[in-house]
Amino acid sequence: MESIYADIQYQDVPVEKKQRLFDEVKADMRWETQLYGCYECGICVAACPSARFYDFSPRVFAQIMAREDVHAFYELLNDSVWDCSQCFSCTRCPRQNNPGGIITIMREVAVNNGLQSAKDALKAYSRIIYKIMSTGTQVAPDMLQPDFFPDWGPDVQQVSDNLDVWRRMVPPETMHTTELAWDVSEKTRLELYMIWKLTGNLEMIEQIDEGIFMILEEVMEELLEEHGYDIDDLDSVMDD
Amino acid sequence: MSLPIIGAAGPPKKAKDRIFDRGDRMPATYYKDQLLDLEAKGELIVHRITEENDPVEVDTKYGRKKIIPRQNTWHHKSCGQCGHIPGYSTSIFWLHRALDYRYEDPRDQTSCTAWNYYASSTSNPAAQAAVALRNFAQAYEDGFYPIIHCGTSYGHYKEVREELLHHQKLRDQTRRVLDKLGKPMVFPEEVVHYSEWIHVMRDQIAARQVRDFSGITATVHPACHYHKLVVEDAVYDKELYDGQRTAIVSALVKALGAEVADYSTWHDCCGFGFRHILVSRDFSRSFATIRKIERMKEEADPDVTLTHDTGCVTTLDKSQFAAQAHGRNVGIPVMSDAQFAALAMGAHPYKICQLHWHGVDMRPLMELMGIDHRKAWTEFEETSKAIKSGEQDFLAWEDC
After folding, report:
1. The pTM is what?
2. What residues of chain B, 310 to 369, have a C-beta less than 8 Å from chain A?
3. Residue B4 domain-assigned?
4. Which of A14, A89, B291, B344 is the least buried, fewest Cβ under 10 Å from its Cβ?
């Protein structure tokens, strides 16, 4: 089937590849509750923050997926999908569509297939992936550095300069940390890593950033072995 | 041809004349029945709120009564709150201590990892469900009821609940993971956000108020992942905005005697964007300042804007510095409902509310609240010096 758009991008990509990725999205167990039809009323667009500052429209996602236009789908998958804010304001849809939910699934497909556009979108972000997967907390006080947040003003410099003392000036004992948001016990961090391993998540990291994957695996599996865990007992349980 | 309007006896009423009435439209079945069915089949354990949790009931969007536990709560902390807005989490704990409610601040809790999931999608439903249920199992084993600090964790855990209830395959995958970890499969009967705890405690907080907030005007930003993700769990009150938007935060502001000022973009997101706030902040800054802060300034000119989620406080607060450098109409202090409530009850602005971690100048607001911020900062610095010199290890609760 031809695209409805004459100027569609990625015409050199085989339609079979586009169809396979499209089918992967529709095979997701969540798919059946994401899209019920579209009035083209534009309520989702009016509610969408990304639509105000990017060439982005949640309505187009609903329309293209409903039309099964695999060419336009592939363009969205590469050029638009990472602009979404994932705020789910679009769930104001009178047909109870969830364009943000469609995008969550599309992003997973993009990552699982190692699309270059996904790697590019997540290039600066991958060190955060390492943080969450190895420490069990997403952001840490020591990330507040002026070179990372120059636009947040002089307070960031002050936090950075006084970090150790100011963290010890926070009364809850779990929050005297600088490298983690709070003190997560080692056993708990290892359990989190075991979840990533048992659910096949590390393969997703490998698709996006092989370097981060290798460091993560080496550091965490050494720790697991130190604590007497059998790595061979942690193969994916997804297909059992 | 004119189409009949069902239920309309005359011309459509103007919005201000509408009468809010939920009627009897509450769904005949809802998630709790399904959870109990799964428990009866031996698939999982439902973690119940009991009398030991000193529960109270509140209305939700479609009329279901939600049970909020007040006592013996397990605090599922937030990455962004603990990491970058430490006065947020500290204020939540301080309120529990000041009002004499027992809680657990666990070390055996991980992030829900949903910030990463919505930013990068480097995860899948089974992993996300297993992370949620590992935390819930831990709360169950620790003997406390989970209460969730982050709006995204709260929203995402409700998504996880929906997915688990509807997909046997996902339940089986999650169970296999939990078996490997030696954890039971537990889901709480209610997913409870800390702001709901503050909401049901607002009269007790007001009764202990020591600072006069009657001269303060506040705008409220309801967090997207609180009231837009699995909407039926969010708390609504017929007496607030005619039940047409969540009562959370606004009800607290009124209880404390401050004015809640409306503005046209209240439903808009803050611009956080998950990935954007960390690596594409031009978008977050533009949205936060142009669609939220400037609208509030022009339409309400508030003394403070209050919200109840991690990302919203960060985005609305930190985005203002660059906008101010460009001469935009910004400069509204931003804080959480927890910090606002703690300040009302006399909490120290720096030792407890940690306002020096915020970007926008809080001093004019503190003056309106009757706080001597110079004295408070001197007190903070004295203890800082004692820690720096090694005379004192930490700031203890008792020193606050």
Report:
1. 0.95
2. 318, 321-322, 351-352, 354, 356-359
3. no
4. A14
